[in-house]
Amino acid sequence: QVQLVQSGAEVKKPGASVKVSCKASGYTFTNYAIHWVRQAPGQRLEWMGWINTDNGNTKYSQKFQDRVTITRDTSASTAYMELRSLRFEDTAVYYCARGQCAGCYLTDSWGQGTLVTVSS
Amino acid sequence: DFVMTQSPDSLAVSLGERASINCRSSQSILSTSNNKNYLAWFQQKPGQPPKLLISWASTRESGVPDRFSASGSGTDFTLTISSLQAEDVAVYYCQHYYSAPLTFGGGTKVEIK
Lengths: 120, 113
Known about the structure:
heterodimer, A: 120 residues, mainly beta, globular, B: mainly beta, 4-stranded antiparallel beta sheet
């Protein structure tokens, strides 16, 4: 079955970077996009960006454009999201989600989430 | 960016009764090329990731109970739970996937009265 397993919780200081991984199994990795969505406490879900896992093309929300990088390792069926220059307000649960095709925006399976806490 | 507005923020419904959630997009999410509405509904239970319930505004995903239905077109959409069950207690989100950036509604918390 389709599974997206994310890396564990992180605690970071303001100004640091965090890199969250998302390992896919149960399907052909390069046939489906990976999106990253975050959920801050009490806030709505917020889309950060996505990667076409087949050709590596990415697109980011303008809000995160300068601070986020999404990559993938096709040999490991794993996608990564790196967020730099962390701020207190970046404290959130970060999810990866599978697009329904390599270039699809509709997501049909989500990872379990990774809590990133930014604290001094 | 498309702004998605949900109402109400929360609602309490008796078991077996109907629950309806509204979602409005700031711009039409109906594609004229394929006549499809790029609107999804997700269910999120505490401590869990969102789960896709409905795509293309009205298509139920496999395994989703048929008490869940959805309708609408253009800018106005509705998710209906025809007979609320205890396991339906959750927060429900609409999301457009018409173009990037994808955006979500603020969520509607459904509880048992």
